[in-house]
Amino acid sequence: MIRTVDESHEVALVKRLGGTALAVVLLVGVVFAVVRGRSDETSSTDLRTVRGVIGSEKLAFFADQRVRDAFARHGLAVEVDPAGSRQIATTVELDRYDFAFPSSAPAAERIQQTRKAARTYAPFSSPMVIATFDPIVKLLADQGVVRPGQVFDVAKYLELTAAGTRWDQLPNNTDFPARKNVLVTTTDPRDSNSAAMYLAITSFVANGGVVASPEAEAKVLPAVGKLFLEQGYTQSSTDGPFEDYLSAGMGKTPMVLAYEAQFVDRVVRGDSTIRPGMTLLYPAPTVLSKHTLVPLKPSGDQVGELLTTDAELGRLAATFGFRTADPRYFDEVVKEHGVSVPATVVDVVEPPSYETLERMLEAIAKQY
Amino acid sequence: MIRRALIGVAAVALLTGCSGDPPAGSPVGEARPGVLRVLAGSELTDMAPVLEEAAKATGVRVEFSYTGTLDGAESVANGTAEQGFDAVWFSSNRYLELLPEAAKRLGRPTKVMSSPVVLGLPASKVRELGWDAKRVGWAEIADAAGQKRFTYGMTDPSTSNSGFSALVGIASALTGSGSALDAAAITSVAPELKDFFSAQTLSAGSSGWLSEAYQRRARGEDPGARVDGLLNYESVLLSVNAANVLPEPLTLVYPNDGVVTADYPLTLLGSAGEDARGSYDRLTAHLRSPDAQRRISEVTGRRPASPEVQLDGRFAVRDLVELPFPGSGAAVDGLVTAYFDQLRRPSRTLYVLDTSGSMEGERIDGLRQAVIGLTGADTTLSGRFSKFHGREQVTLLPFNGAPESPREFTVTTDADLGRIKSAAEGLGARGGTAIYSSLRQGYDVLRAQSAADQDRFTSIVLMTDGENTSGDGFDDFAAFHDGLEPALRGVPVFPVLFGESAADEMGRVASMSGGKVFDARSRTLAEAFKEIRGYQ
After folding, report:
1. Taking CA atoms, what residue in A is nearest to B182?
2. Between vectors from CA B51 to CA B47 and to CA B55, what angle results, nearest 5°?
3. pLDDT confidence band for B16 (50 / 70 / 90)
4. What are the domain boundaries of chain A?
5. Inter-chain touch A247–B257, beta carbons under 8 Å
6. Could you list the residue ranges that cross the membrane (chain B) (predicted)?
7. Closest listed residue to residue B207, CA positions, set B278, B129, B262, B258
8. May I ask the CATH class of domain A127-288+346-366?
9. What residues of chain B lie within 8 A of the CB of A247, using their CB?
10. Does residue B195 form part of some domain?
11. Coil, helix or strand at residue B324
């Protein structure tokens, strides 16, 4: 990293000075001084570098200077590479890292098994939510899909989708008579963790309990596969549809599956991207995206420990919208910013095992 | 460092070289600090002023190499894009992401701006149709098109994203299932789609040329029949209005059941080096900043991508319903194939081909390959869609000192393509060069063909490698052309510059007929013939 900074400085300066031999000689001294000066400021040599591969939802958190400072106070410099949670569990070469930090419990469970990790840490979580707009809430309330208390009734929703209902077929719909199916926008089930979490929710409801057998998989696949396939093209990164929700609005994305943290983070930023009329619904039941750290080396354990116990890191995680192990931090943040979220999310179910989830995702991917 | 400097000089020379444009998609040099090498769609040219300001603010300079959507997708999929570029920037990543080999090479995307594909019609036409007082859906638009109450131009869906988006939009809206398209859904609405495409009277390989040809016809500068409207990006239609070059400004019709929107994701390639990643981060952070977003919208007429930035008054309809897009490459291919082979007005394509003695050797062989490439021999992504289409009427009219007899084909089965291939293989080189007498003969062929079957997209490709040596001269032809009946006078001629072509005369033939010159002097004839397919 520093090497490239060094080179580009050198190139820029040589260009400016015209490049006589003398200038170059003088310059080398200057460049060295600049580089040393910089490294003194930003990275003290006593910090121990710990490398992790993380679900991309947490990249902003780890990149935040306040978070870096908090780790530095414990002698750590945490360097992270973002990757999809499912990739972390399958294709990422984990030997290079001290810890893996996927965004879901099933992915972590799989890594823990294959790497024989003694324990895991779940310092924060975020429930899966549906971000939508007031006119949509009203339309869905008429259908019994939305109930008071920001509840999105998944069973009722599946009844609507089973019939292939379009928005313009809903009675008394003048607000959003779009000629497209009533469907929650998700990411591509072939790529993304949030889509896998959505499958966990919908398969639970379609099956009447956690899917845990091949028979149950076969039973639910037609109904839940449709929820993805009928969307047609879906984006591969979780940021994509949520950004569309914020910028293109109701016409493009009337309902988007998101992590609660994505929405809260935007409110906390106060960048006016969350506008009046934008609202959160909580699927009943929902699942928690449990950000679970799997230590791969002892120094990874230290990061897991700090994230779980350090009060400052806890507070900072809450400002990024995560629900923290100690609920006070999250409560303070949502109170301060006036975000309308339930203090506790009650109707939460467990996702199926990693293997079951993977098999169902594979089966859906084949139908594209 | 010295090596780097030299490469920089070489790259500049390449960009400013006087031997014509570099071939599409050609690399822009090795990776250098502070430079982001981007393989891009040609509509990004209008970002030049914004990118200059970005370079000042961030120290990151963008070097573009332009290519078509399908060729670009192919070079990402087969890995060649990774060899010479750090990022790709097309109007949409949807098609790329449907190709597994391309999708896995894409890194982070950053959406920079957006523009929906909508219909622009003169205000008086919109009033006449009664669409000024209410918003209409695609079904009503298709119905009016089927009754020929208006005509329009759109780009070739296989070479240009605006045409592709229009095709997906209307097919998706008309199926009415509201979910993504599949083959059965397309078949079920084929009659309505045929209605809609029966009113398409202008096609083009690029959005830019489509818009210019439309303007020329509207002002009566081109001999072709006036075209009422344009299906194009909102940004293109807004720019046409802003330039104040039409007799009557366009009213934008936003179908109330939905549109397909281009969202211009600047996308890092997975292979990009550390320097390029840093450059990408700095550049995208700048482009997404509120000030840059406002500037982009002002300069390009596209909508800002950052939710912090509000739309200005030019964007009359704000909340657009986005239609679903097919979820598999097979569905997309099926739709485009159906468009060419069943849905759109079939083409009548006349090739007037120089087989004089000067074509002997490599040249005649290149010409044979160019025609054979269009019979299915070109198996690249773009080649598959540029072959002669089902129902197309293809005529080869070889000439030397005089026109030979025309070889006429109508494509119904693969066997017909085989016959065209055999005819191309039989082309030989000898004798003189009677360009204009032969071209004249071509109009007689077209006259006879259209007497039997009038409703076709008709055009002429004129390929010659040198000066006219016998028969009519240019002035004779110009007088002849002037005296043609309007239907034939408006048939666009697409001259192909090759060898020692008389570039000036060819340019005049193109402009008197409302056509366009294609240059094959610095690339193969096959590449030029393939590009022309978008205009036929």
Report:
1. A232
2. 175
3. very low
4. 2-42, 48-123+290-337, 127-288+346-366
5. no
6. none
7. B262
8. alpha beta
9. 111, 114, 304-307
10. yes
11. coil
